[in-house]
Design goal:
The chain is of the alpha/beta class. The protein folds into 4 domains: 138 residues, Resolvase, N-terminal catalytic domain (Rossmann fold), CATH 3.40.50.1390; 129 residues, Hect, E3 ligase catalytic domain fold; 103 residues, no CATH class; 87 residues. Helices cover 47% and strands 17% of the residues. The protein has 15 helices and 18 strands. It has a 5-stranded mixed β-sheet, with helices on both faces. Strands 12-16-17-18 form a 4-stranded mixed β-sheet. A 3-stranded antiparallel β-sheet has the order 13-14-15.
């Protein structure tokens, strides 16, 4: 008689159920300073969401910065994610909304169908659509079509509305130039900046060029509106701006059908409004300044985009005098008929009684940088790595959570304005009603944006230091000892140099450290 014996399976040899490999995709189209925080907020959200599911494995966040959603062609992050899907590295994708993925219906469906063939499915959070459910394809088509048409419709509505305001002279200059500010929709003179504008025009009429005026402003420690140093380009932009004589030229740029911005060289109508606001410079002085600039450019044969005044040396514009605060200039010296390069304080060169700091050889700065880098390489475990750990320990979760709420509120505000604009263009709303409601929404959007900007500034400060410190640690780990000055490394890791004394300088690093070196 047959006897059957069951041999139990070895539990140790049984494979654990395979986890679903889940990735997330994000697209941010804000400026560079905001992107870092916005991406970090989304990375934190998706990492927490995916890792909280025991059946999921977090692959990572794929993203694109500062690009339009109307085309996939230039979105490297999205293309990389699709390539990884083809390579079998991803099983499931989470995306905030269809509009973040693609506003072009054809491209959206082609990408989704391609992924479905690979058995990779997408979940769109906002629309609650899972492409794994085939019956959702019709819904996906509708939503992506709406996203595409809304992009075009809103753009056209905005253009129509702006064009009408150009024609009747009621367009509000949202970002007035230096010297002006916006009060209740009107451009008014900013008393904190107006004297600088008058100084720039006066110096131009006295025969000075943009390079000299910018240098003088920096020597006087007068910052630009964004707290940066003046450049010849910034000065010349002010001298060329018709707004300073009280006029305004509307539609200097335009956006084409593919959402690409261009300088308007006659492709679109322009509207020139005289006496639009209070002038800072008289018409006569403004026109005289234009004549001076044109003649100067002609005499010096300088064309637009000329790189004549760009910094050509690693230390140019990066050495600050610890005694008077002026920048240092590169000069050629000679000793026993042998030429060498040195840097000297601009104030000392002009008036020695106002600054006693004497020149320092260029080679001395190079050697000091090498010494500093080698010290960091040997002390990274007691200096750089603990600093990195302390920076990463700073808790920014509350700020990031608030930023997410503000972004949601701004998106809701945008949708309301879009709906309002659609009603207005279809003549369902009277102009007075539209202006009243639109002004309220714009004021709310500005308040939300201002709060978000303040949070970005505080959070981004720490992120920038962490990123810079990571780069510095990677660099000092790349060699046991550094023997030659590396100009690229100096540019990458050093913000500027302070000269405390002729024999002592300080390297202000981009990670927040200031390290002193004796010469």
């Amino acid at each position: 008689m047959k006897r059957i014996t069951k041999i139990e399976a070895n539990e140790k040899l049984q494979k654990a159920p395979k986890k679903l490999r889940v990735a997330a995709y994000a697209r941010v189209s804000t400026d560079s300073r905001e992107q870092l925080v916005s991406l970090e907020a989304q990375r934190s959200h998706y990492e927490t969401c995916i890792k909280s599911n025991p059946n999921w494995e977090y692959v990572g966040l794929y993203y694109d910065e500062g690009v339009s959603g109307t085309s996939m062609a230039k979105r490297d992050g999205l293309i990389k994610m699709l390539d990884d899907c083809e390579a079998g590295k991803i099983d499931f994708i989470i995306i905030k909304s269809i509009s973040r993925f693609a506003r072009n219906t054809t491209e959206c469906l082609e990408a989704v169908r391609k992924l479905i063939k690979l058995k990779v499915f997408i979940y769109f959070e906002k629309e609650n659509i899972n492409t794994g459910d085939m019956e959702n394809e019709l819904l996906l088509t509708i939503f992506s079509s709406l996203a595409e048409s809304e992009s075009i419709s809103f753009s056209e509505n905005e253009k129509w509305s702006i064009e009408k305001r150009f024609q009747n002279g009621t367009y509000i200059v949202a970002s007035p130039p230096y010297g002006y500010k916006n009060e209740d929709g009107l451009m008014v003179i900013n008393e904190d900046e107006v004297d600088v504008v008058r100084y720039i025009f006066a110096e131009c009429l006295a025969g000075k060029g943009g390079h000299v005026i910018a240098r003088d402003l920096n020597d006087k420690r007068i910052p630009t509106r964004r707290k940066r140093e003046w450049t010849p380009g910034t000065v010349n932009a002010i001298l060329r701006n018709e707004k300073y004589k009280g006029d305004v030229l509307f539609q200097k740029t335009f956006t084409d059908e593919t959402f690409v911005r261009h300088i308007n060289n006659g492709e679109k109508a322009q509207y020139y409004v005289t006496e639009h606001h209070e002038a800072i410079i008289s018409v006569e002085d403004f026109e005289a300044a234009q004549t001076m600039i044109d003649q100067r450019s002609k005499d010096m044969k300088i064309q637009q985009g000329d790189a004549k005044y760009q910094n050509r040396y690693p230390f140019s514009g990066k050495i600050v005098c610890g005694e008077c605060g002026a920048t240092w200039k590169r000069r050629t010296h000679s000793e026993s008929k042998v030429k060498y390069y040195a840097y000297a304080c601009n104030t000392h060169l002009k008036k020695k009684d106002q600054c006693s700091m004497q020149f320092i050889r260029e080679k001395s700065f190079e050697v000091a940088f090498l010494n500093m880098i080698n010290k960091l390489a040997f002390t990274k475990k007691v200096l750089l790595q603990p600093l990195l750990a302390s920076l990463k320990a700073i808790n920014q979760e509350a700020a990031i959570a608030r930023i997410n709420k503000l972004e949601a509120a701004l998106e809701a505000n945008f949708n309301k304005r879009q709906q309002l604009m659609n009603l207005f263009t279809k003549e369902y709303l009277e102009p007075a009603v539209f202006n009243d409601q639109n002004s309220g929404l714009l004021a709310e959007a500005k308040s939300l944006s201002d709060e978000k900007e303040a949070l970005y500034a505080s959070v981004n400060h720490e992120y920038e230091h962490v990123e810079a410190l990571n780069k510095l640690i990677k660099y000092v780990n790349s060699a046991r000892i550094f023997t030659e000055f590396d100009a690229d490394a100096f540019e990458e890791h050093v913000d500027y140099i302070i000269v405390f004394k002729r024999y002592e300088i300080g390297f202000v690093l981009k990670c927040g450290l200031t390290l002193r070196e004796r010469l």
